[in-house]
Amino acid sequence: MALWMSLLIPFTGTALGSAMVFFMKDKINPKVQKLLLGFAAGVMFAASIWSLLIPSMDMAEEQKIPTWFPAVTGFLAGILFLLLLDHLIPHLHLNSTKPEGIKAKLKNSTMLVLAVTLHNIPEGMAVGVTLAGAMIGNIGITVTGAFVLAIGIAIQNFPEGAIISMPLKSEGMSKTKAFLYGALSGIVEPVGAIITILLTNMVVPVLPYLLSFAAGAMIYVVVEELIPESQEGEHSDIGTIGIAIGFALMMLLDVALG
User: Fold this and answer.
1) What are the extents of the domains in the chain?
2) Which of 44, 142, 170, 213 is 20 to 30 A from 201 (CA-CA)?
3) 128 versus 48: which is more confidently predicted?
């Protein structure tokens, strides 16, 4: 039961971040936003390596197949999957704003929610596939490691929740509604995790591919969205510092506890 409850940990991070709309000013300081975006990128980058790609290779070795094959093929498939979604689903980048009247604001609000929701899909898959590996007792993934990944994603979801709810509030949306929009953007994570768990329980041999697939999808988000936006304009070094802190923290959690 406790293992299944961990499915809600990343969503809780998003909800808590969205709740900052009740305590903070209408807009996030640009420097703080750069730091938060960089931090989220660093956490996702480290999680992709230690929580997903390395276990994928370990599991491939156990299955007596070339260790590199599932990691490479799944990784590239994850990149292509997010690339396809990125082109099919219209959305704003996380720091985009185009205040051009009520209709434009409403459209931008919807697109901003879609942007964060799109980012949360691979994170939900990552949690689901690691929990599935832990439940089947695979040597490559431990229960502690699965919890660490869920906590790490929750940590990086906290700034994402704030990044979505605060702009919605500044566009005139009520605090309660902005909070709900931000929190609901993370609902795809437990849903995606449950679907992934159900699928992996049926097709255990493809688990290494699913791990690397989730890693590729997460790296796509980092490279396409988070890092460029943390480096945009002045004070790009703040975003770099955030990346370093996030990467080091997630690495520490995964190596020390996983």
Assistant:
1) 2-23+37-257
2) 44
3) 48
- pTM tops 0.90: no
Quote the CA–CA distance of 103 and 77 in Å, as a whole number.
Answer: 37
Amino acid at 189: E
Nearest to 200, CA basis, from 100, 132, 122:
132
Phi, psi of 54 (to 5 degrees): -65, -45
Confidence (pLDDT) at 97: 45
What are the pLDDT digits (tens) for 195-230?
Answer: 877 876 676 788 889 889 989 988 998 998 889 888
Alpha helices in the chain (DSSP H): 2-5, 9-18, 30-46, 54-62, 68-88, 102-135, 143-170, 175-184, 188-202, 207-221, 227-230, 236-257
78 has a pLDDT exceeding 80: yes
What's the chain's Rg over C-alpha atoms?
Answer: 18
**Residues 139, 146: Cα–Cα separation, whole Å:** 12
